[in-house]
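Hi support team,

I'm opening this ticket because the web form for multi-chain structure prediction keeps timing out on my end. I have pasted the exact lines I submitted so you can reproduce it. The total is 958 residues across three entries, so I didn't expect it to be a heavy job. Is there a limit I'm missing, or should I split the entries? Thanks in advance, R.K.
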Amino acid sequence: MTIPATSRDTTTPTTDIATARGAGGALVEFRDLRRSFGTTRALDGLTLTLQPGEMVALLGPSGCGKTTALRVLAGMETVDSGQVLVDGGDLRGVPTRRRDMGMVFQNYSLFPNMTALDNVAFGLRVRGRNNAARRARAGELLDMVGLAERATRYPHQLSGGQQQRVALARALAIEPRVLLLDEPLSALDAKVRLQLREQIRTLQTRLGTTTLFVTHDQEEALSMADRVGVMRGGRLEQIATPGELYARPSTAFVAEFVGTMNRLPAEVVPGGIRVLGQVITPVDVAGRSVGAAVDALIRPEGLTAEPVEHGSGIVAHKTFLGGTTRLSVLLSEELTVQVDSPSVHAARLTIGESVDITARDTQVLVADPTGPSTTR
Amino acid sequence: MAPDTRTALPPDPTDTAASGKRALARLPRAAGALIGLLPFAVYAGLFLAVPTIAIVIGAFQDPDDGGFTLNNLEIAFQGIYLHGFITSIELSVITSVVPGVLGLVTAYAVQTSRSGALKRAVSTASGVFANFGGVPLAFLFIATIGSSGLAVDWLKGLGFNPYDHGFSLYTFSGIALVYLYFQIPLMVLVITPALEGLRPAWREAADNLGASGWQYWRLVGGPVLLPAFLGSVLLLFGGAFSAYATTQALTSGSLAITPIQIGTFLNGNVLAGQENVGKALGFGMVVIIAVVMVIYSVLQRRASKWLR
Amino acid sequence: MVAVTGTGTARTGALAASARRSWGRWVVLLAAGVYFLVPLYAALRFAVQTPTGGISLGVFGGIPAQQGFADAFGLSINLALVTTLITLALMVPTAIYVHLRLPQVQRLFEGITILPIVIPPVVLIVGVLQVAPAALKGTPYLLALEYAVLAMPFAYRSLASGLQAMNLKTLVEASRSLGGGWFTTAFRVLLPNLRSALLAATILTVALVLGEYTMASLDQYETFPVWVVVFDQENAHVSVAVSLLALIGTWLLLILISLIDTRRGHRASTPGES
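Hello R.K., no limit was hit. The queue was backed up. Here is the completed structure from your submission:
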């Protein structure tokens, strides 16, 4: 598959997600959103559709516009042009408080002067539900997030993870059409983060609420979302299921942003490429002439390292990851590749040992060469 | 409380009581190390504790024979002296609550603006004006709302002379107006950190959950800010209550507030048998301010818990 | 569902509300500006008015020549210097000691240094005059001794923040391990690093003394502020002019302090300290 130099816009979303769950969420559409802050273009033609009940993660480096997109949906940011539609209704002119969306912020969003229960009940209170009804519902939700026995605690008496769970319960209490998550796990410890990931996903699936989730942590995005949209410079580079994104990235940026990717200098041959001294076919080289210089993008699990005398590289570093060990192999002064090897084999390799690298029968992607090779 | 020539804010007594208790528990072991505090302890003891104790003792002492008596206190809380206390408290309440509200509004107006330059200008200005007081301030206002002051001239030009309607710089209302000049900036200084402690996420969350602006302030913003606001007002109260120089410079002692009355005991003619009433008055002042400070530190502790 | 793509900012409820807020904000700030600046202008105008109705800046130049000014100002400066010496000599070692040896007492100590604020100066002077020996009462330096007490909280706060920003314990241990005695450590290591805190404490103390009226007038010494009030009987224009200068002087001093603070803030890298 050839990767074009320009980015491609959104692919067609899968509709079976909505039918698999009950109707619970709304249909959300972004149409060609544009927004600039001064000379910076935060949103540059963002078009995206969220199916009812779907969880979509927006992933990207800081400044890519993902948070702006979320806040536009929430009504906290305006757009210069473009439309935001929920269930077919244009949200232009609708203030935040009438959009019926639940939002979970990064941290410190619980009202400090209220107990957990009162926090969760807040949305119901401003909607005029009576005391008993809202306390009951709030209690239900706290139970759902596993904090029923902490209902009477104040935010400063709760841990970070507990606070975020209360924040989640609070957002869900109003039965929102859309759930918005603004990097909700970034401020938490690693272990708590993992626990919460599961909990959020389970709740979201159970309730079937359409969810937009912003994060810079790709592991989070890939493990939680139905579809992941990679953003850069205010536009969507690619949106696909996690598996698609990993195996069939549509642009070089996506390929290198998601997971680790080796970038090796290669040459086009009929039907394939020549890289690392071997010819690999078939590789999609459409539009390129034979003999042209390109960069080959290969995942670490797509390479093997075999100890030989006078091999093409030297083992520079070993990182034990459990069943797999990641080897850093120095091919030349400027070229280091990451190779994933089963730890059983890797244990036999020593630092400084000479090895030969071969590409396995695997997905190899081709991109335009970009100067000194880097591995991400 | 703060000297008229206040030059910086009083330190924040947050958590003093809690850590103080812990510190006291550890004292026996650290007793040796406490020697290093001796010079300070001696100095503070001599020049702060001794005069204070002298006042407390003197308040209960009969000036003729040195025996214990409640006579001084009786006199201190009756008649013109009671009137003095009441006037003092009235003045202090007005010049703490009004600037409290005005200062809060001003601080909020500045804090919600997006101009960094404005914020810096106001913060330096507040620091400066909060330290005005006493003598120079008195003269500034003589030139402004004295009987031939600039503002009075302007009003006269519009056909209205406030002095004809009972207003005078040298009475209660005039003095109160002068106090505002340093009380409002002091309030701005003290309440700004609290306002900055109001996280934008709270407002956004409230918005998002459907609350109107009024609902947000009523249910979240107001309650969270209240301890800090009350504490600041108390601070202002203490400062106004202790103030001496401004009023003395303006009225030469004709406005009967407690600090002025205490002053007359040092220089003025004192009725026989009442020599120690001034100390009783002083004792009363110290008690009132001590109570205020205790409530203030409790409120500060609550405020810091929520506005961390 | 008609597609209406517009250019220009979409006005949501939030934007309209903030537009309203900004109008209110300017009203508030304007009112505040008027209230605070008019008296300054009024004072300036009054000060430069001559009896003949004209304007003259000569009133400022003529201040030093006024009767009693030199003595009063000199006395105030004198007292300021003595007070500063006493305050620093007392508070610097104490602050260093508390931060070094008794960190657990730090909070309690901060509370103690607030005490002078609880005792109003007018009450303090009554107590002082009650118990002071006649010899002390006869000299103005009694005031200096008490001014040091008034200055304590502010001096301690300055020093404490300077000490916290400089990793006291580490520096002292480094100096001692390299062989430095207490003297060396104090004068070559600690004090140079406390320069800006010392300067701030000094400025605060001097400003306090130069402006203190209550205790000086009740102790019947004609310091500078006392002189200003007394002189008002004779020539109000001069008193007002002097007051203006005093205010501007305070202003400059405070700006100086904040400049010192910002410089210190850039050098010290401890987060959250100022």
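A quick check on our side: Chain C is about 75% helix and 0% strand. Let us know if the file doesn't open in your viewer.
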